[in-house]
Amino acid sequence: MEQIRRYSNRKCYSSSEKKFVTYKEIFDMIGNGRVVQIVDHNTNADITSRILGKLVGYRNLSAKDLTGILSNTTTNGVT
User: CB-based burial of residue 56 (10 Å sphere; 0-12 exposed, 13-18 middle, 19+ buried)?
Assistant: First the structure.
């Protein structure tokens, strides 16, 4: 599972890639079948659902795309 830490300045850091990533890169990771968990740096709270909701809002997705992304995250333990 790819863990991404979101900092208060809204930057996201991928621990496996050892670099800051954009929301587009996160969305692409999920679209390519990678399981991600997004964690708030200050509270260690899992904010994956909140960020995915924002990402979906930014994109014009078909129902098929959305279903695939959500099933990928929920079946792999990310809520």
Answer: middle
Residues near 5 by beta carbon (within 8 Å), at least 6 away in sequence: 12, 13, 15, 38, 39, 40, 41
**CA 16 to CA 2: how far, in whole Å?**
7
pTM: 0.72
pLDDT in tens, 6-27: 999 999 999 999 999 998 898 8
Say whether 29 sits in a helix, a strand or coil: helix
- Closest by CA position to 11, among listed 19, 78, 3, 49: 19
Expressed in angstroms, the distance from the first to the final Cα of the chain is 13
Q: Which secondary-structure segment (H or E) carries 73?
A: helix 63-75
Amino acid sitting at position 21:
V
